[in-house]
Amino acid sequence: MGGASSFAAITDWVHDLDEHGRSRLGFGDTVPVATTMWRLLTRLDPSLLTTVLAGWLHTRTRPPKPPRRYRRVIAVDGKTLRGARLDGGRQVHLLSALDTTTGIVIAQVTVDTKSNEITSFVPLLDAVEKVLGSLAGVLFVADALHTQTGHATEVTARRAHLLVQVKGNQPTLFKQLKRLPWAQIPVGDRTRDRGHGRRETRTLKAVTVATPGGIGFPHAQQAIRITRTRIVAGRTSRETAYLTVSLPAGQALPRDLQTWIRRHWHIENRLHHVRDVTFREDLHQARTGTGPAVIATLRNTAIGWHRATGATNIARATRQASHQSNTLITAVTSSYPTTQ
């Protein structure tokens, strides 16, 4: 929370506390040396740690007053810890689930180095369910890698929903979506953005497909096409994306779909980017034991806590917090009533 971005920095922060601060954390006349702190943090169970800390944040975060048509949207995405190289040049890869409303990482699992994110999806669902208690009504938004029939079946079995992009890894489904009569389907929603010398228009069309002869993806209720038109320095580019969602039209209007699809970028812009830039994650070479996953979890928790306290600039928030050790100690040791 105070911006310590490595095991050594965490140790220095503890050693720099005054006597009162050490006492509040339960330390006597001595505090752990760097090697003790390192041994502890490289042996923790990262999945259990994530569950405990996510639950801790979850009970202390009061989400914004929900609008009438509120739905919890969780973005799923993976990130490679580029500095944490294992034997043989392998790298640690983590799959995370971000609550896009609160900015809290609900769950994070380590992807087996001999596999990929696909096999880690169900364990991630298990971890999310452990924190939330139930997945009923939750919408998971993921990239094309997770456009898997097994994922769709598993999510539906837990009474949740799935919104995924379709690309070349599902060629038959991609062709089915592309061949739908989009020219005859009216525009459902259109948004325009301007900034950084760029103008972008996002046009969304959606059509119900849960009928005999629909598309070949289990539990899909709607097919979606988004056309993005960008104008940068006078040059125009156009990109088309196809997606499916397991929510019917009555529960997922075009403007809802537009919003939910864009929320998937939150996990990249509001989490992974912050871990890289503010906490310099890709430069950190911790690779012993569970150390890489553990310190990533601590970074997630710090970011989530600052967001929960209203911060929009995490770098500035950590700089301010670094001078307020007693405030941070109070935050992690005080009892709070459950707000959710």
UniProtKB/TrEMBL annotation:
InterPro entries in the record: ISAs1_transpos, Transposase_11, Transposase_11-like
GO molecular function: DNA binding; transposase activity
Domain Transposase IS4-like: 71-291
Pfam families reported for this sequence: DDE_Tnp_1 (PF01609)
BP term (GO), one: DNA transposition
Source domain of life: Bacteria
Name the UniProt record assigns to this protein: Transposase IS4-like domain-containing protein
Organism the protein comes from: Actinoplanes awajinensis subsp. mycoplanecinus
Organism placement in taxonomy: Bacteria, Bacillati, Actinomycetota, Actinomycetes, Micromonosporales
